[in-house]
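Hi V.,

You were right to ask for the full record rather than a summary. Here it is.
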Amino acid sequence: MSDKQFIAAIDQGTTSSRCIVFDHGGRIVSVAQREHTQIFPGPGLVEHDALEIWENVQALVSEALEGAGIAASDLAAVGITNQRETTLLWDRATGEPVHNAIVWQDTRTADIVKDLENVVGQQRFRERTGLPLATYFAGPKIVWLLDNVAGLRERADAGELMFGTMDSWLIWNLTGGVDGGRHVTDVTNASRTLLMNLETLDWDETIVRRMNVPASLLPEIVSSSEVYGTAVGVLEGVPVAGALGDQHAALFGQAAFDRGDVKSTYGTGAFLLMNTGTKPVQSKHGLITTVAYKLGDAPAVYALEGSISMAGATVQWLRDQLGLIQHASEIEGLAASVDDNGGCYFVPAFSGLFAPYWRSDARGVIAGLTGFVTKAHIARATLEACAWQTREVVDAMTADTGIRLTALKVDGGMTANDLLMQILADALDETVIRPEVVETTCLGAAYAAGLAVGFWPDLESLSTNWREDGEWTSTHDDARRSSEYGQWKKAVQRTMGWVEGA
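Predicted structure:
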């Protein structure tokens, strides 16, 4: 075991970045967090300033170390977890981004996706990649940048540019940037590009050629737990030793190491992952097949995922765009002030519908409005939307695997909302369990880095760190649950076909 006492994880998320320092028991020692600017150039367009994010990360790492009262030399390693499909191109020589990062929620690649579908359809690359063709994934975003930003196609062909999701951007900068930074991405992030072959765990040459993506852009694909390099700057001398996309990190942080284990993370979006073992399961019910994690030279572990684009972001919308609440935490009290949704259903398909529908033509709908409905009913319908979308994904997982959910481990910022936890249990008719440490994305990245350097010896030692904080079971009868689920399904149908030609 390492003689160091602490390990750190950087979580580069959609709305903010965090650094958390953990002790050997997996307990939080200190946290630092900073939001970054959300850039909306037009309807359906979402961008981030990658330089702002990198500056924030450097600052908050210092804050986290200061908060823990330690120096970088007290860290055994640092791990990275990140928003996944968000796509960045930067100059190999200067390290400057050549455009804002295009965020995973962005829908500008609809025409590119439609062209890729051709006569074959949305499932064209699913057998190789585990993914449907959708605006969600990184590959089409690369194509959009190369074809729509002046000069980028020529510069990419000349080998002047680098592509990465945010894990690549951070690892490259942490390990030296233009002065020898390591250009890598782990298998979980690579599996979200539409460019990686699930079987070979390498870039699929056929798809890369079809999308006309220069191979020189692409980072080396590595495991989720190995030493990628040694940090410079604020983390001078610390091994950079783990990387996982945020949802994969949450699965790992929840100690979901056995086939059939399921977790759901409620952050900007909501994401359910089921561990399916060392063989990928091709979904026939609208889910994504993805890599769950890969530890060093061990075989990769795969997962089925249901991706929901709007969860916490819907609460932010109620706050920032409608002004129904002043602070996100107020939604629980407002929603609890009424006994039900008053017949109101809210389907927040702001960027289309993700799993299990994959309908880019859908847009958000509030259905069932009458004069009786108040802002409290809309607040409750917002929380219920998280639950019913979760139910749809759980049903798809059961259909694909034959494994029935017995309990749902949850994490993410929204799980502080006890009312939401109860609503989830009522919708699923299953036990909902919240862990003591809900920051499981950071914890999973810390675990991956710690395993790589011997801070923790094995998976069993990680399982002993998992501790329960709260548990909820259903209070609804089957008749009520079935009726409300049916109404939700009717509301979902009314979102579809809104965008012509999408």
